[in-house]
Amino acid sequence: MPEYVDGVRLLHRPAEQKHTEITLTFAAGAQDETLRTIGVAHALEHLVMGTVRRIPIEMNAEVDVQTTSFTASGSPARVGEFLEQLCHSLTAPPVDRLALEAGILAAEDGHAAHPVVAYLMHALHGAQGPGLLWLEGPGYDGLTGDHVLTFARRWFVASNAILEVTGPLPDNLRLPLDPGPAPARPDFPRRAFGGPVVVEFGIPAAGLALTLPMEDPARRSALTMYVLAERIEEQCRHVGGHSYVIDGDLVMRPDGAGDYVVYAEARDGSEEAVARIVAEALSDLAAHGPTESELSYQIDRWLERLETDPAEAQPDRHNAVGALFGLPTRDPVDVEALRKVSPQEIAALLTAALPTAIGYTCEDTSGVWQQSGFRLTPACPVIGELPAGKVFKPPLFARAFVKEARGMEWVQTADSLVLRDEDGIHEIRFDAIAGVERGDDEVPTVVYGINGCAIPVDTDMFRGANDVLTELQRRVPASLWFDPSKLRPADD
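Above: the chain sequence. Below: its structure as tokens.
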């Protein structure tokens, strides 16, 4: 039977050691914020960790895309003290320190995911859920105490957490979290690309996002991504000398599948070479599968982990976390099935996933992806034609001296704001605005759509733009407006 402490699921691994190691994980991360509250999970983590910093044990905390975790290691008594004080602080965060902590957070300049992962998630989800990883929002100095308190009360409750303990349990362990109900977890809609497609930006790297089923007992999906990442690393680092950082990420989906990402950074001048390696690695593995040596190496690595890491052999943690997200239970690794995975199975899995494939490439390198069957697509959706409505055009001087202005046009309809630029026609419905960043005399107001489009309302570039601003103020709730952060670096 599952064990609980004050409503928190407990995973206890007794061990022959005197010290206690814990991880307290909440199913809440960067994807659970909004454009207006980007950074609130990280701010909450900093505030509550500040309340336990004088306890003399090793401790840390981390916010990623989907979870927030707190770790500590020390004597059972001290670890119990850490957990009790931490949980108490999560129910009543010291928001009076928020203004001071904002500067520290800005100096840390931490990110919940690599920029390539963030850009691909933004292309998939727009300005919601995992897509928020790419956006800045109002900055830490734009957050309020109410934002932090609301986030904590919704997500940091006992029913949304698991506690892992290795070693002795602290005596009289208490986890005084809010006992409120498990939070409703929204399903973030995704764009359907009919891929494979590729998007481009200025990050010197190449990457791939693939949707694969999670996870059969032979762990074919994870094994497939290990094979793909290893081939990319071999060619980018050891053969070509183009990259040092080659890594990956995984975002679990409500349907039980996973968005797997692999990426390779590129040194200056190697952007096209790295793009070619990543694109060709996927297309070749989908067509022919891995070599026997590539596959056997990854299987041997997995078997070694099963042999040396008892937690790897037991799915308890994965299932406990997955249950918080409503995911199906995963069986333990079937070692015999893992040994029997064939190159043909890897090829079939990748071939089936190709329609979901989204590549990322650095600007001016999309040609190598197109040679591998990828279609270049804008990172935000475009529509086929301009709708009827009130038309705004740049003044004649702008069209005469600014090349980009010659093809630009705005249309304001009863339901939406539309911009035609060099990428196509972008539409943001008034009822699907994620946020509005206020402008000033030097920078325009920017409207962010949930669909991922961003439309600048530039009063210098478009005649009549002030009328659009007036309409936005009338139609968009005040809670969605924000000022740009004053803590951003001057060269942003």
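The chain has three domains: 3-113+127-166, 197-376, 390-482.
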